[in-house]
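Dear all,

This email documents one entry for the complex benchmark we are building for the journal club exercise. For each entry we list the sequence lines for every component of the assembly. Then comes the predicted three-dimensional structure of the complex as a token string, followed by one or two observations. Please use this as the template for your own entries, and keep the labels exactly as they appear.
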Amino acid sequence: MSTDRDRMLATIRAGVARSATRDTPKPAPLVPQRGQLNGRALVDLFRKQAEAAAATVAEVARAEDVPTAVADYLRSRNLPPQIRLSPDQRVNALDWKSQPLLETSSGASDGHDPASVTPVLAGVAETGTLMVHSGADTPNTLHFLPETHIAVVYADELVGTYEDGWAALRAKAGADLSNGAMPRTVSFVTGPSRSADIGKILLMGAHGPKRLHVILVDAPKSSVRPAH
Amino acid sequence: MLHPTSNAFSAESTKAIANPQLQEALSVLRVQSIPNRLKAASNLAEFEQLRDRARDLKNHILGHLDQYLLQFEAQVKASGGEVHWCSDAETARQTVLRLCREAGAKTVTKGKTMIGEEIGINDFLEQNGIEPVETDLGEYIIQLRKEIPSHIIGPALHVTKRQVEETFREHHTDLDAARSLEEPAALMAEARAKMRDRYFEADVGITGANFLIAETGSTVIVTNEGNGDLTQTLPKMHIAITSIEKVVPTLDDAMTLLRLLPRSATGQELSVYVTFSTGPRRQSGPNGPDPDGPKAFHVVLLDNGRSAYLGTPMQEMLRCIRCGACMDHCPVYHAVGGHAYGWVYPGPIGSILTPALLGVQNAEPLPNASTLCGRCESVCPVRIPIPKLLRHWREEEFSRAITPSTQRSGLGLWAWFAKRPSLYRLATRWAVRVLRWGAGSDGKFTSLPLAGGWTKHRDFPAPQGKTFHDQWRAKGRSIGGKA
């Protein structure tokens, strides 16, 4: 008995066989010049693009400065001093005890956390985008449920283009991302959640985070040392 | 199942033009959509080159569609998911229902999916005792109002802010009737709060997919609200409903299309959330165990007549990435909005897809609801020659005698003259004289026999001077182009 799969494939094959584009080669990718930068120019482009997408950006010199920057941000916005951390060492190993007023916990979110602090796979300067992925140490709920998402980006995680971002994933998860090597989700996040579905008026904070704050650390991720 | 009303286009557009709230809602297209796209396109130096690459990429994919779909299917399996091939809407509906029942679903949250609209999944689930909850704000608004999307990107484009307020007051009766909803932000906060618990209650999350990645077996959603990600992360099962032409070979290839889609759709450099989903929650391995995410991942892959157009002149319509730029720029869509088109895909691309998917006899007016001005083609990110394809449907209608008989006899009469050039010239010369003589001193007609539809709303200008042929000859040029 022929299945829907057989029927569809038969029609598709017949169509492909007579298609004028059967011999069209796959075009080579075209990577825009805009993101192909280094050093300070790369940081400046990331900042400009992220801010244009309504994210806020702070820069700190060292990994040790991140807890203070998080506390300062929450205080300046009058937000509750309560954060949920990704279990990942890049944020979890920071010295949060240095901020006694900050209440911290870690792990996936059940929807009751006002703010999350997460690492990223990459910050992409081309459009001021963060690449984040799900995994044991990076619960996906932390990227979407809290009202405030604070993302920590280390200097060696900042890249120019989306293609560089995929290269960063390949460096981490394996050159071949097929056969289940991809994390369950990889998200490109550009600014906080928004909608223009009410009378075409653009409003921030639809269903995802209402605020996206990026802390750029001018040091590599290897500089994170577990606090004692 | 939604009954298409595309054949009532003329009557529906008359109503639409007379609807002041709709006209107010549509005015944003001119003041926002067009300038926003233009700005985003101009900001990227390589935008036009990317459109060429995207066209070539989609042509390549359509010429190798079997191969990429099989690769996609194998990769979905390898990451722990399942692909369900569905040749028509009914099979797709039954498949979704069966999966929902397997999950023991009572409620289903939904991200925005145009394929879901195409197969009428909401009504079907409801009839079978499963409550579908739309989570995209625009889809939620129209679900409460029991309407269909009027735009593929902004489904509630036709609804004004005041109407949203009325709808929320009517349906959110558990809230204080005296609350202020004057600010649009208050309306959004209310929808956000209403939706929060629903995400956690749902047993199944249904999303669409903008792209499918053959290399990895990923489905891709492009959203601004974050509802799609919550929809596919919180319930125990994720079902992505999608169609065959959305497959793309590699992650890098997808980026070519993703550099075009948001800029063309909303004028954004990138939509807020672009998520690649691959398989269910990992139990082990380098990325696992995942602390969150669905335990099952299913892809419902719909054909619904698309594959029959491969290798035909209509194949080009299958390049469409559903950005909506053609409707944002269409003078007809600006005037009548999306509902007049009578089915889920409105505007220029809808006037091509609807006859293709429902049969041209069920959408006769749509290919004719265009001035063929070409704006749609000029903004299409994958360079679909929309006017050419509309003409193709017009020819098909004529050859299958679907065109109304008055038009057919009019065209037949014109063709008879056009095939006899000397007679044609004589006839047009006489027509010019008669019209000029009959028009009177101001050179206009306020009424004309057989042209009441035209003169009801505007005057018909009488021809001035001589026919084109006569002027051409008088200027000493021949058809060959030489003096």
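Observations: The first strand of chain B starts at residue 82 and ends at 86. The first helix of chain B runs from residue 9 to 17.
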